[in-house]
Write a structure and sequence with these properties.
There is one protein chain. The chain has 302 residues and is of the alpha/beta class. The protein folds into 2 domains: 169 residues, NAD(P)-binding Rossmann-like Domain (Rossmann fold, 3-Layer(aba) Sandwich); 98 residues, UDP-galactose 4-epimerase, domain 1 (Alpha-Beta Complex). The protein has 9 helices and 13 strands. The strands form 4 sheets. It has a 7-stranded parallel sheet. The radius of gyration is 20 Å and the shape is globular.
């Protein structure tokens, strides 16, 4: 039985990762402060990653899945406290690429501040850099928008709520802006491939090979409930994050490296259906934003 350390383990990606590897037969240790319910079957290491007091020194892991590294200090403080370990896999972000860069983004593309993501992206760059300094054979995965069960971010769940309430959907402009997604289960399966096969490439963009327009994406979300959206196009100069769950920013990652070792991903239709089924049972676990209030106060006249 392989032993894996998962940082976090109680919210969306890290929670899903912990649950996935428990069900895959791994001995799963989670490192968190125990402020939220734990996934069944994990072994809790209750601590702050910045104040570990030597508790990891005598432990060994076949893999470290660092889901919650957001800056250089997160990386440094954990690595200095680790005992022996095999693969170190850090989940980074596509936010490391500046919005003005040539697309599709390659792993070698320039990394710099992205005006939409700001410090989140630049902090991820610093985390990546210090990780490669300290662990030369670490793996870094850069996903686009992650989705799937356990997602506590109000993205697809917002559209589900619109569909369930039979609301009109206020769509930015003509709805042609495209988004790229990656199911959290695909992320876990890819990590298993890395642990098992130790691929040559250590930095990978990850995601579905195809992007989808926001109009198509909303339509697929409505279809989970047997409904068709009635669209109202919003062409006014309004910040779309006030009424829609994504920035007005279209980008695309080249995922050729991923495709060489993990070519088949979950279809967006199946992934969204899985998300909808989870949401119906876990509505209170999503951090909702006041999109409806803004729409009803500012857009209903359109």
């Amino acid at each position: 039985m392989k032993r894996i350390l998962v940082t976090g383990g109680t919210t969306f990606v890290s929670k899903y990762v912990a649950d996935y590897f428990v069900n895959a037969g791994y001995e799963v240790y989670v490192l968190n402060r125990n402020t939220k319910p734990q996934v069944q079957g994990v072994k809790l290491i209750e601590a702050d990653r910045h104040n570990l007091r030597g508790i990891l020194k005598a432990m060994s892991f076949d893999a470290v899945a660092d889901i919650t590294a957001y800056n250089a200090a997160d990386i440094c403080d954990l690595i200095e406290e680790l005992g022996p370990f095999g693969q170190y896999i850090m989940i980074s972000s596509s936010a490391v690429y500046p919005e003005y860069g040539d697309q599709p983004f390659l792993e070698e593309s320039k990394k710099s501040v992205n005006k939409y993501w700001g410090a989140y992206g630049t902090n991820k760059i610093e985390a990546e850099n210090v990780l490669l300094e300290k662990v030369s054979d670490a793996y870094i995965l850069r996903p686009p928008y992650l989705y799937g069960p356990m997602n506590n971010v109000y993205r697809e769940a917002f559209v589900f709520d619109c569909a369930l309430a039979d609301r009109k959907f206020y769509l930015p402009k003509d709805g042609s802006m495209k988004l790229q997604f990656f199911h959290v289960k695909d992320l876990c399966r890819l990590m298993e491939v890395i642990i098992r096969e130790k691929p040559e490439e250590h930095i990978m963009n990850v995601g579905n090979t195809e992007a989808i327009s926001i109009k198509e994406w909303v339509t697929k979300c409505y279809e989970c409930f047997g409904k068709t959206p009635y669209f109202v196009n919003v062409y006014d100069d309004i910040e779309q994050r006030n009424y829609f769950s994504f920035y007005n920013y279209e980008y695309f990652l080249d995922v050729s490296r991923q495709s060489k070792i993990y070519p088949e991903t979950i279809s967006l239709e199946d992934g969204i259906k899985e998300s909808a089924e989870w949401y119906l049972e876990h509505k209170l676990e999503v951090n909702k934003k006041p999109y409806f209030e803004y729409i009803d106060s500012n857009l209903v006249q359109i």
